[in-house]
Amino acid sequence: MNDLEVRQLRYFVAVAEELHFGRAAERLGMAQPPLSRAIRELERRLGVQLLERTTRQVTLTAAGEVFLRDARTALDAIIAAGRRARHAGQATPRLRLALKADSDAGLLPQILSAYQHEEAALPVELVLGGRGEQAQALRDGRADVALLFSPFNDRGLDVEPLLTEPRLAALAATDPLAARRCLRLADLAGRRLPDGAPADQDPSAAVIDSGPESPHRGLVSGTRKTATDLAQVFKLIELGDIVCFLPAWVTRRYPWPEIAYRPVSDLEPATLAVAWPRDARSTAVAAFVRVAGSVGATAGTAARG
């Protein structure tokens, strides 16, 4: 078998993710017939069928599932190689730190202050994004290190937890549940989280995401609302439209008279972690991870005290 081309991997990933040749062709900016021919040629070269095609649907075969996972990894590696090479070739190297605004547990100023005294320290460039984007930024070469919430997809990454604290339920101060000192998830039955999920099921992704990439939707007087920042989410909570699970460090930073924060005994806590590519050999990254771990340990001791 001849070596595969990057173009073939891109074509297959688009079809496998869309499960529709027309949509995949549109996404790739090409016509459908050459895309279909390219996928057939890929299967011929591999000697295995990757897709099941009928007049109604396209599905992945077992081989296709495996190939999709590895093709994504290969494309990530190729894209990351180019970005990291360009970054390394800059006249003034920087440490690119991926994070979501308001999701550093208040540790970032302390981390940066301590980091600048490290011998291997570089100027830090913030790579801001929505929740869930930081791990991918590490894999595709947009960032060198990240602060992010667990759990997340840690494929290809090394991770060190920094701080773990309870998540609290944020609900309108006028909500009858606000009269209780402590709640259970079952008490929140019938209420919705910002993403529309039932509040009594504790989806781990329900920690607040105020980024515009993942808008939060609520229902007020029959009108669909979209919140694109934390203040808007607080307003929807205040109106009784949604409830939200917030790490304790967020509730301390944002006391809100119209909102009650209540512990939930069976709610999983929130963990802030530092992550970096598993094959990283940068002394600047190592210094940042070391400093972040020290600051996190101090903060954790203070929180427990």
Helix share bin: 25-40%
Q: Write down the secondary-structure element order.
A: HHHEEHEHEHEEEEEHEHEEH
Class per helix and strand makeup: alpha+beta
User: Any idea what the radius of gyration is?
Assistant: 23 Å
Q: Low-confidence parts, pLDDT < 50 over ≥5 residues?
A: 205-226
Shape, please? flat
Written account of the structure:
The chain folds into three domains: 6-85, Arc Repressor Mutant, subunit A; 93-157 and 271-304, D-Maltodextrin-Binding Protein, domain 2 (3-Layer(aba) Sandwich), CATH 3.40.190; 167-263, Periplasmic binding protein-like II (D-Maltodextrin-Binding Protein, domain 2, 3-Layer(aba) Sandwich). Mean pLDDT is 85; it is low at 205-226. It is an alpha+beta fold and 305 residues long. A hairpin with a 4-residue loop joins strand 1 (51-53) and strand 2. It is 37% helix and 21% strand. It has nine helices and twelve strands. The radius of gyration is 23 Å and the shape is flat. The chain has a five-stranded mixed beta sheet.
List keywords for this structure.
alpha+beta, D-Maltodextrin-Binding Protein, domain 2, 3 domains, three-stranded antiparallel β-sheet, 12 strands, 21% strand
Helix and strand arrangement:
Blueprint: H1 6-18, H2 21-28, H3 32-46, E1 51-53, E2 58-60, H4 62-88, E3 95-99, H5 108-115, E4 124-128, H6 134-139, E5 145-150, E6 157-165, E7 167-172, E8 216-220, E9 223-227, H7 230-238, E10 244-247, H8 248-253, E11 259-263, E12 270-277, H9 283-304
Parallel strand pairs: 3-4, 3-5
Antiparallel strand pairs: 1-2, 5-12, 6-12, 7-10, 7-11, 8-9
